Amino acid sequence: MGSLRIKAIIFDLGNVLVDFDHNLAARRIAEFTDKGPEEIFNLFFDSELTGLFEEGRISPLDFFSKIKDTLVLKVGYDSFLPIWNEVFFLSEKNRQVYLLAQALKKKYRLALLSNVNILHFDYLKKEFTVFDVFHHLIASYEIGYRKPHPLIYRQALGTLEAEAGNVFYTDDRPELIEGARALGIRGFVFRGIEQLKQDLSSAGVGLE
User: Fold this and answer.
1) What is the mean pLDDT of residues 139-143?
2) Which residues, 6 or more positions from 79, have their beta carbon under 8 angstroms from its beta carbon?
3) What CATH number has the domain bearing residue 176?
4) I need a labelling partner for 161 at 20 to 30 A (CA). Which of 22, 126, 152, 167 fits?
């Protein structure tokens, strides 16, 4: 075991560095189906189908085909893409986290660890300038597992070349933090920029 000094920091993406609202897509898709926005939302967010897509186990075209069949969707793939992707936006909270990450990069290895599908990730990298601050980008669809599966956290530790006790991790979903803590990673639930700074300080991370 190494010392407990923090050597690397892992950030979640959604609702930490970039905000999103799947209701935006659900309401737009509702215009092309008899299904209501709530049913569409449940299909989009954290469903078994989305899980397969975020683990890279089905292709974008297969994902769309299954959604089209399930919703009896009257829209083509090219029209679906912008609806599916345009659910992200930047808030002042996101900007503050990004600036903090910029400062931390001077002394720590930084990784982004996200449950994300290839369509969203490609779109985000094209449209949002939040990725340049990270040494490593770790996406679930590339690994084949989603948080909180232990293997995606182990992949992050291997990529960072760090032991679990030397890694700080922040994520807005408590169950994903618990999955990381089970491996010894020093996880903290993200509850805003000030709480994040307090958590970093309590873990011995220098903010200056």
Assistant:
1) 98
2) none
3) 3.40.50.1000
4) 126
